[in-house]
Design brief:
mainly alpha, 9 helices, globular, disordered C terminus
Amino acid sequence: MVAGLAAAAGQPMPRLYVSPVRQPNAFATGRGPQHAAVCVTEGLLDLLSPRELRAVLGHELAHVHNRDILLSSVAATLAGGLTMLADLAWLLPLGPDGDDGDESSPGPLGWLAMLVLGSLAATLIQLAVSRTREFAADDEGAALTGDPLSLADALEKIHAWTRRLPLPATGDVPAAAHLMIANPLSGHGLAALFSTHPPLYQRVARLHMLSAAASPNVRKVYN
């Protein structure tokens, strides 16, 4: 499947891996098409039909072809830099209400606000980039396979089972969660607001719109 999709996109074949994890999920990594790898879990292979699996692989190849992993790394670096600047601001002179500083400097509450808002802004920027790239990978992966409805069905299945079998938020899992096609952690309530993935209903709705807009004369369906 991957060889055929890569050839159709005119891109090199990535390395392939299977993870012995029961949760159904998939991710791509590598700074570009020449240095890419795609990984699926055993749970994904057991859960999805061939058409749904092909649609998921198209999504992951879209990430590779668009260099989304490199872009996400740059966004994470910039977000980390903003957070560091906000942290350093706390160490600067406190101003008229502190011991040092001049009258033009903010007081302690001003520095505290900069610390909190700077870190929050960095996080929101990173999340915005991640969610935008997920939408783009859905769209372009569906265009590559010509089967947006199979990707919508796959996302619904994966979402349901990741909620039943969430991965523990330990080790490298939180750091790699944004790479996966669905959030592998259990995110509910306030945590869902800071998810690296768009809401499932938005992704599915976009894919149904793509399917409805596609002309029967040009739409390719995998059999």
